[in-house]
Amino acid sequence: MTGTLYLVGTPIGNLEDMSYRAVRVLAGADLIACEDTRTSGVLLSHFEIHTPLVSYHKFNEHERGPELVDRLLAGQNIALITDAGMPGISDPGEVLVRLCHEAGVPVTAVPGPSALVTALALSGRDTRRFSFEGFLPQDKKERESVLLEMKTSTRTMILYEAPHRLARTLTLLAGALGEERPISLCRELTKKFETVTDTTIGGALKALETVPARGEYVLVIAGRDMAEAAAERAEAFSEIPLAEHVASYEAQGMTRKEAMKAAAKDRGMTRREVYQALL
After folding, report:
1. How far, in Å, are 51, 210, 248, 276 from residue 241 at the CA level?
2. Number of domains the chain contains
3. What dihedral angle (degrees, nearest 10) is formed by the CA atoms of 111, 112, 113, 116?
4. What is the domain range of residue 240?
5. Domain endpoint, select from 224, 244, 265
6. How far apart are CA 105 and CA 109, in angstroms?
7. Do the strands 156-161 and 182-187 form a parallel or antiparallel pair, or are they unpaired?
8. 121 lies in the same domain as 103
9. What is the CATH number of the domain that holds 12?
């Protein structure tokens, strides 16, 4: 019989957030794969967990992953943890999970704290639709593409950032989204000096001039106003003749009725208004 891979969520700051189940699974596993054995060693020592550790991080995940799968196939149970939070969320893990699925190894999760969900809840921003962007890409071309998508998105957007890069990231966001875009800066979540600052991107940049960034940050950014986005979209489509607009959707395989409905949505019109205009 094969073993099981356990994805174990660990505290993002406050050790009291460690669950009873997480402690039990980590203590009972044959092996714990962790991002940094020194960081995880402190956590495990606090809970008197003596399970052997092996490093598994983004620089060795493609080499170490198959080794871990072999051990799982041999019947060992392995727990995967990250430095903080849930494995696989802006941290190593997805490669190993995918390898386990391909090899037929069972994978289960022991849920734990998540910085992105905690920050979203604390921000008071719209939680019905949101997107998690992780860290902005280092590659300039890829980063510009992400920022362009963020500029037009009406969803609440969540970013992670380290203190030494916060000013640079806020400057990039100001250039793409505008200084007046609302943002919540969530810092040191679940720790003693936890703070949630509700401001604008421009306001956050100004505050950094006098108060330096400290601790890990989660940025919760308001999506673009839906009414504003719809009005701009309607204005852009108004430059295209209505008949051409409908015909372009028909060329994509839509029926006449579907094409008129799609064009009406683009232009902020009703389907009846489109139908009458075409007549």
Report:
1. 69, 53, 11, 14
2. 3
3. -30
4. 227-278
5. 224
6. 13
7. unpaired
8. no
9. 3.40.1010.10
Clarify whether residues 159 and 216 are in a common domain.
yes
Ramachandran region, residue 272 (left: φ > 0; alpha: ψ -120 to 50; beta: rest): alpha
Q: What's the pTM value of the predicted model, to 2 decimals?
A: 0.79
Whether 95 and 109 share a structural domain: yes
Structure confidence by residue, pLDDT tens digits, 85-115: 999 888 778 999 999 999 999 999 999 999 9
pLDDT tens for residues 131-181? 999 999 999 999 999 999 999 899 999 999 999 999 999 999 999 999 999
Looking at the fold, whether 9 and 64 belong to one and the same domain comes out as: yes
Whether residues 52 and 105 fall in one domain: yes
The token pair that represents 101 in the structure block: 């699925």
